[in-house]
Amino acid sequence: MDDWRPELSRSAVLRHCPIREAELLIVPERIVVLNDEAAEIVALCDGDRTVAEIVAEFPPEAGADVTEFLEKVRAEGWLR
Known about the structure:
By secondary structure, this protein is an alpha+beta fold. The chain is built from 3 helices and 3 strands, in the order βββααα. It has a 3-stranded antiparallel sheet with strand order 1-2-3. The mean pLDDT is 95. Pfam families: PqqD. This is Pyrroloquinoline quinone biosynthesis peptide chaperone PqqD. InterPro entries: PQQD, PqqD_bac, PqqD_sf. Monomer. Interacts with PqqE.
């Protein structure tokens, strides 16, 4: 996982919803309202940064949570 460079899958789109004042992850047949932390993580998934580089953007105590979140989102098929 250390060399994985996460990016949104071709079927996923990150959009801001001004009505909800939240970031939405739009995927087939589903819209996921992201909390601020999740939106920040997903926004960093540009295909250029490794997981380690993404984790480094957050406080050290959040590292395991960021990695776990990335794994869950990848399992859903929203990241590649």
